[in-house]
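Possible regression after last week's pipeline update?

I re-ran a chain I had predicted before the update to compare outputs. Posting the input and the new output here so someone can diff against the archived version. Not blocking, just want to make sure nothing changed silently.
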Amino acid sequence: MHPIAKHELFQSSRDEHAKDSQAQMRQGRDNPGADLGHYLRQLRADLGWTLADASAAAGIARSSISKIENGQMSPTYDLLLKLAAGYNVDLADFFARSGTQDATGRMTVTRRGKGQPHPANVYRHEVLAAGLSHKKMQPFHTHIRALAPDEALDWAVHAGEEFIYVLSGVVIFHTEHYEPVILQPGDSIYIDSAMRHTAVAEGRDGADVLWMAAS
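New output (post-update):
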């Protein structure tokens, strides 16, 4: 059966598993990569998919999905968006630390340093407001490191828009259509995410930013 057709057949079991998986994720905050991997592996099993099925649905290499499932690879925001779309789940489900909240009049508080950690290559994200699903934007408190002398830029491109506000340090923001922009504390930038982009820090201490993404 085609992978997309299986979404409907396994919708109920997926929803039930999402609740169980979120509870497991809350119990294993010290290893967010393993938590996410477990969630994706069980979700794929619930859908009855092979790695090839998941690869076709999400547009991600089978080897990458396998590494993510086994906690050997921390996916970038781009990959998370592809996984969410391919598995037909909300992006917030990957980070949820409490029950899904879909009622109107919603509110959630994230105390300092209590966001859901999600390390990536150049970025170390702290996911904020993780308890709310179906948000129109995804906020991160992100530490950006400097590149090594021989390290290439890690470009990203995906649907949506992004806003970055520099809290500390110096950020060099690269885009495919503009010259690099140097951002100091208090500076901000708003971009169309469909334009290739990436950010690196200047200096060994890196930089901290508030990063808002809307897809």
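Follow-up from reviewer: compared with the archived run. Helices lie at 6-9, 11-27, 32-47, 51-58, 62-69, 77-87. Marking as no regression found.
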